[in-house]
Design goal:
Layout (H helix, E strand, L loop, with lengths): L26 E2 L11 E2 H10 L25 H40 L16 H38 L7 E4 L2 E4 L19
Antiparallel strand pairs: 1-2, 3-4
Helix pairs in contact: 2-3
Length: 206
């Protein structure tokens, strides 16, 4: 009659990321996972949270979806207050410099418009006679400045939209070199696209 020998459970804790049992004092259980997935090194978890592309994994466990309890540790409260004060001063300095730069550009444009329009008075005639000469050209400079900013924003929006559309087309594995749009297909080397917007079964210009 065989004797029943109970299996001895291995009590050694191992990190679920690096599978190492070193530094047991640095192992933590940050979520509700059990068994071999219960423990992880602090550094391993920090590295995983920092490089993981999924934004949810920064605050939540990938397995049990438990939200990590993160408590900031401040060794020196006075030093932390000093860093916060320096950060606010730097932000204030940068914002002040940006505002001053914009004002300088607007004022320079004002004098430029005033010099260009000195003989013809084309810009000056667009405004009421009650307005001062400097006010007319300053207002015109403001209009040009914000119109230029809007134009740059429109270009950035269009470039971002075209880049997203281009990446979407390139992600098509069936036709990686074919840019297909509604009712049109521009083919570089399609090798036979399938679907309603196809290139006629071969490469070439669509």
């Amino acid at each position: 009659m065989g004797e029943h020998i109970p299996l001895q459970r291995n009590s050694a804790k191992a990190c679920r990321i690096c599978f190492d049992t070193d530094n047991p004092n640095d192992l933590i259980s940050p979520c509700l996972c059990k068994g071999g997935s219960a423990y992880v090194h602090r550094k391993c978890l920090d590295d995983w949270r920092s490089v993981n592309k999924n934004g949810r994994a920064f605050n939540f466990c990938d397995v049990c979806q438990f939200e990590y309890v993160i408590e900031p540790v401040v060794d020196n409260p006075s030093s932390d207050k000093h860093r916060l004060l320096v950060f606010r001063l730097l932000v204030t300095r940068d914002m002040t410099l940006i505002v001053l730069l914009f004002r300088l550009i607007i004022v320079a444009t004002t004098f430029l418009l005033q010099a260009v329009d000195k003989k013809s008075n084309t810009i000056k005639d667009l405004y009421p006679n009650s307005m001062s000469s400097f006010g007319i050209y300053y207002l015109s400079s403001l209009i040009l400045f914000f119109a230029f900013l809007g134009f740059l924003g429109l270009i950035g929006f269009c470039c971002g939209w075209m880049n997203d559309n281009h990446n979407t087309n390139r992600s098509n594995d069936t036709c990686p070199n074919c840019a297909c749009y509604p009712y049109n297909c521009i083919c570089l080397d399609c090798h036979g696209c399938d679907g309603p917007n196809n290139c006629g079964g071969g490469g070439g210009d669509g």
